[in-house]
Amino acid sequence: MVRGDRKLWSRSRNICRVKGSLLPLLLSKANNLFSSQDHHGNLLSAWLREFGSGRKAMTNLDSILKSRDITLPTKVRIVKAMVFPVVMYGSESWTIKKADRQIIDAFELWCWRRLLRVPWTARRSNLSFLKEISPECSLEGQILKLRLQYFGHLMRREDSLEKTLVLGKMEGTRRRGRQRTRWLDTVLEGTSMSLTKLREAVEDRSAWRALVHGVTKSRTRLND
């Protein structure tokens, strides 16, 4: 059904209508260099490539990470500077769900195990690795930081297409049952604040930076 210039998407077929004309969607997923997700915002299909690149970057550092002349805190900073950015490329646009967070946590723990040269057969808890590494912030927390910074950037702009897409609404109702997680939902969940309060908070840059810092620094996973 089409009303005026509004666009309504078909649920059953991969098409949309504009002024009565059918426009096929040629791409089922969007690719941005090393980052990709489908039209539902799902990332599981992209994890193999994202974390495959991260694992390769980690293995390339073996000669450095095995050196006894480098202290553990320095090795941790090397991993955060040369491995994590490879995985986090484009992560401010990700819609991360529960299954995605588990994959992110698993990759981070794999990095710390490899850094400490502990085999997977060793009977050590994940908490013991985190206490030994003493990370200031988890990988998932760093991704949340990028997402919140991007959210603040969008909300401070007076008029932009990205802001319209995030805050815009369409006529009609969503499907029955559990709804798909949206990008904005992850921002609200990460801060435990309403959209109205967040839009007020981003206007004060200093207060917003302090809020983002406080939220992300609490994501150490030591309380898991």
Structure description:
The chain starts with 7 loop residues before the first strand and ends in a 7-residue tail after the last helix. The longest helix has 19 residues, at 98-116. Helices cover 52% and strands 8% of the residues. Among the domains are: 1-32, no CATH class; 34-137, no CATH class. Strands 1-2-3 form a 3-stranded antiparallel sheet, with no helix packed on it. A two-stranded antiparallel ribbon has the order 4-5. By secondary structure, the protein is mainly alpha-helical.
What is the count of β-strands? 5
Shape label: elongated
Distance between the termini: 48 Å
Strand order of the largest sheet: 1-2-3
Put simply, the count of helices is 11
**Rg calc:** 21 Å
**What kind of sheet is the major sheet?**
3 strands, antiparallel
Residues in β-strands, percent: 5-15%
Helix-and-strand structural type: mainly alpha
Order of helices and strands: EEEEEHHHHHHHHHHH
What are the segments in which pLDDT stays under 50 over at least 5 consecutive residues? 1-10, 26-34
Residue share in helices?
A: 40-55%
Q: Taking all residues together, what is the mean pLDDT?
A: 80
